[in-house]
Specification:
InterPro entries: SCO1/SenC, Thioredoxin-like_sf, Thioredoxin_domain. The protein is an alpha+beta fold and 191 residues long. It has one domain: 3-Layer(aba) Sandwich (Glutaredoxin). 29% of the residues lie in helices and 19% in strands. The protein contains six helices and nine strands. The strands form two sheets. It has a seven-stranded mixed beta sheet, with helices on both faces. The protein has a two-stranded antiparallel sheet with strand order 6-7. Strand 6 and strand 7 form a beta hairpin.
Length: 191
């Protein structure tokens, strides 16, 4: 995993890493699991957005991350939960069709949003946010290796990256941070 510009160590009381450069939330311009156009900024407007790039056939980090976020959402107060949007962007669009992606995400939480598109478009979007991504490779045994960054990107209401949650972030860290993130006002003057 690679994190671009992980910040200066001052995490504003959050468990996640606050990056020095708080990049803007992209539109993404991909498609949702029903094949409809998906604009990340529009669909998550006014919400704290947790975004993760991964794939449904992942043996470890992807399902664990989605399960941990789901578990945290069941533990926070309903008013906090309603202010959170979780978006999963597939890094393996050839195998992660809309129905496959939808079915996989629903096992974690029915509110999670799955999006897909061409691999090149997804890689461009991921790398613009500092998430490395390599073309899926078929291995000698027939399995497919998809190498991707494993950070969850948290966007604030002002559509800027607020924090990065690295692989292995525990459920309690999300439980602690989600109320803090939803309590923040929009805009840089709020911090």
């Amino acid at each position: 995993m690679t994190v671009v510009d992980a910040g200066d160590g001052d995490n504003d009381g959050l468990h996640g890493t606050v990056p020095a450069q708080q990049l803007a939330k992209p539109a993404l311009n991909l498609t949702d699991t029903d094949g409809n156009p998906f604009d990340l900024r529009e669909r998550t407007k006014g919400k704290i957005t947790l975004m993760f790039f991964g794939y449904t056939h992942c043996p470890d980090v992807c399902p664990t991350t989605m399960a941990d976020i789901s578990a945290a959402l069941t533990e926070v107060k309903p008013d906090v939960r309603q202010q959170i949007a979780v978006v999963f962007v597939t890094t393996d669009p050839d195998r992660d069709t809309g129905p496959v992606l939808s079915r996989w995400l629903k096992q974690f939480n029915t509110t999670f949003i799955g999006v897909r598109g061409t691999f090149d478009r997804i890689r461009t979007q991921a790398e613009a946010l500092g998430v490395p991504l390599e073309q899926p490779e078929v291995q000698a045994d027939g399995s497919v290796l998809v190498t991707h960054g494993s950070q969850v990107i948290a966007f604030s209401r002002d559509d800027r990256i607020r924090a990065l949650y690295l692989a292995g972030t525990g459920v309690q860290a999300y439980i602690d941070d989600l109320p803090k993130l939803t309590a923040e006002r929009s805009g840089p003057e709020a911090r």
